[in-house]
Amino acid sequence: MKNFLKKILIYPLFPLFLLFLFSGSTNSKSNSDLEKHFPVEKVNPDSLLQVQFDRAVGFLKKGEFDFSIQSFENAILTINKGGLSDKNLIYRTYVNFGVLLNRVGDRKRAIEFYNEAEIFTIAEYSQNSNKLIPIYINKGNIYNDYEDLIKAENYYKKSLSLIDIVNGSKWESQLYHNLGVIYYKKKLYSEALTYLLKTLNIKTKQKTGNTSTTRNIIANCYKKLGNYEEADSYYQKSISEVKEINGFHFYLLGDYYLNYAVFQDQIGNSDKVLSYLNLAYDVYVKNFGGKHPDTAHCLKNFGDYYSKRNDHLNALKYYQKALIAETDNFNNSTVYINPSMDELDPQLSILEILKPKANTLQELYSKTNSIPDLDYSLQTYDLCLDIIDNIRIAYQDEESKFALSKNEKDTYTEAIEIAVELYQLTKDVKYKEKAFRYAERSKSASLLSSLNDVNAKNFGGISIELQEQERDLKLNIAKYREFVHDEKRKQTPNRDSISGWQNVLFNLNEEYNQMVLNFEEDYPEYYSLKYDTKTITIEDLQSRLDDNDVLIEYSISDSALFSFIISKSSFELERQKIVKDTFDYHLEEVRNCLKTNDFSNNSADYYKRYTRSAYQLYQYLLSGKDSLLSGKNLLIVPDDKMAYIPFGVLLTKEADSTTMNYRNLEYLIKENTITYHNSATLGFKNHSTSYGVFSSKSVLAFAPSYEGVNDSILFTERSYRDKLYPLPGVKEEVNNISNVIHGDLFVDDLATEANFKANASNYDVLHLAMHTIIDDENPMYSKLVFTQNSDTIEDGLLNTHEIYNMNFNARMVVLSACNTGDGKLLKGEGVMSLARGFFYAGCPSVIMTLWTVEDKTGSNLMSNFYTFLSQGLHKDDALRQAKLEYLKTADSLKSHPYFWSGYVTLGDVDPLYDDSLVNKLMYFAFGSVGIIFLLLFRKKLRRKSVA
Question: 65 and 104 in contact (C-beta within 8 Å)?
Answer without folding.
Answer: yes
